[in-house]
Amino acid sequence: MGLLPATFRVTSTRTQQVEGARCQATRGRAGRSGSAERAATEEFRRSRQVFEDTVTGLADPGSDELTHAEMEDLLTVVARDLMLALYQDQLDLRAVRE
After folding, report:
1. How many CA atoms lie within 13 A of 70 on its CB side?
2. Each residue's pLDDT tens digit, 12-63
3. Which end of the chain is more exposed for a tag (fewer CB within 10 A), N or C?
4. How many whole angstroms separate alpha carbon 28 and alpha carbon 19?
5. Per-residue pLDDT at 9 exceeds 60
6. Residues 49, 50, 52, CA angle at the centre, nearest 5°?
7. What DSSP line would sit under the chain, residue for residue?
8. Cα gap 85→22, rounded to integer Å
9. Sequence spans of domains, the chain
10. Closest CA to 97 of 40, 47, 42
11. Minimal CA–CA distance to 48: which of 87, 85, 95?
């Protein structure tokens, strides 16, 4: 029998702060024009590419050869790379908006 999926919900003060920031960001988008929204979304192309490359790699039949531990190690590195790309893309967007 393989691993069973599990869902965990962890709530902390930091999580609540991030969710609050998301809500504020969503409200702030209402006043933007369509072209401004498209420009903002375009800034995240690096992050989207990292994500798409990850999905492609995981869908590749060669990934079936990885053990669970190897897969976890790989995803830990890839997740860190994705978070760094998202962070840098957001900083780049801020610079464009200033």
Report:
1. 7
2. 555 555 555 555 555 555 555 666 666 667 889 999 999 999 999 999 999 9
3. N
4. 14
5. no
6. 60
7. --PPP-------HHHHHHHHHHHHHHHHHTTS-HHHHHHHHHTTHHHHHHHHHHHHHHHSGGGGGS-HHHHHHHHHHHHHHHHHHHHHHHHHHHHHH-
8. 18
9. 34-97
10. 40
11. 85
